[in-house]
Design goal:
The chain is built from ten helices and eight strands. By secondary structure, it is of the alpha/beta class. Helix 6 packs parallel to helix 7. The mean pLDDT is 97. A six-stranded parallel beta sheet has the order 1-2-3-6-7-8. The chain has a two-stranded antiparallel ribbon with strand order 4-5. The structure holds zinc ion (ZN) (2 copies).
């Protein structure tokens, strides 16, 4: 069974437990390695959004940055702290980030320059927001879970197409080691998966072309009663030999390794022979 997770969060972003608590639990589980991947959300307009109001109310303003220069100091400090702390634990600790990819003009160039100056080990892309065609910020997908909320968007399906297109661009950018929760948008109750099979298949194709990994996330089990991605898309990933990694997307110590035994069985059942590993 896979005895590590590369998709975990700490109090540096929106999780319940500290880095120290997460590392102790990983040691308790008998893991020999772990990747810490707190959120990295940098968008020029983010401070004018309901999302920012929300994270400020929750005392997590550091969840949202609107300036790459300021963000650099914040993340560089976190990386130093993780590296220093990791030395006290008998396991290999990789420093990563879960990055929201944005599509407005200039974002990718700025991001490349920014990330080149940081000493992280890896990046995953996890996309949590609705954007419009220009990459303007519309809102946090979690705020549109119920039908009354998503109805307010007007054209939900159009926003979902743009969302999948954003993920495809993120994959094609070549900036990331693996993709998190491919069909996270399933948490929106009005989402009709048959309408978006082709969008998902295009992402699978992009993953294959770039050689990037993809996660099978047990967070979906906790949130919507099924894995991300759903089984037919998982089978396509296997068919195209996209390297897969099981993720817990742990936001507290008790979620580390959550349902990994079940996820291993799923991977066996779909015939997965190609696993993702950081080296
Ligand atoms: Zn995520
Ligand atoms: Zn996450």
């Amino acid at each position: 069974m896979q005895k590590f997770s590369y998709h975990t969060h700490t109090k540096f972003s929106d999780a319940e437990n500290t880095l120290e608590e997460m590392l102790s639990q990983a040691v308790n589980l008998g893991w020999e390695e772990i990747g810490i991947s707190d959120h990295m959300v940098i968008h020029k307009d983010i401070k004018n959004t309901f999302f920012y109001e929300k994270v400020c109310r929750e005392n997590r303003p550091h969840m949202a940055h609107d300036d790459f220069n300021e963000a650099k100091e914040f993340f560089a400090r976190n990386i130093d702290y993780i590296r220093k702390t990791a030395k006290k634990y008998p396991l290999k600790v990789y420093v990563g980030f879960e990055v929201d990819y944005f599509t407005y003009d200039g974002w990718e160039e700025e991001f490349r320059e920014f990330i080149n100056q940081l000493d992280n080990d890896y990046l995953l892309t996890g996309n949590h927001f609705f954007l419009n065609n220009k990459g303007d910020f519309i809102g946090d997908i979690s705020d549109y879970k119920n039908k009354e909320e998503s109805d307010k968007l007007g054209n939900l399906d159009e926003y979902i197409h743009i969302h999948f297109n954003t993920i495809k661009k993120a994959v094609k950018s070549g900036l990331f080691n693996f993709l998190a929760h491919l069909d996270y948008v399933r948490k929106v109750k009005a989402y009709e998966s048959e309408k978006f099979t082709d969008d998902c298949l295009q992402i699978v194709k992009a993953l294959k072309e770039t050689g990037m990994g993809c996660e099978l996330s047990t967070k979906g089990l906790r949130k919507i009663g099924d894995y991300y991605p759903q089984n037919n898309i998982l089978r396509e990933l296997v068919k195209e030999k996209v390297p897969l990694v099981i993720s817990d997307d742990a936001h507290k110590t008790t979620e580390l390794g959550y349902a990994f035994d079940k996820a291993e069985n799923v991977l066996k059942e779909v015939g997965c022979q190609c696993r993702f590993r950081l080296k």
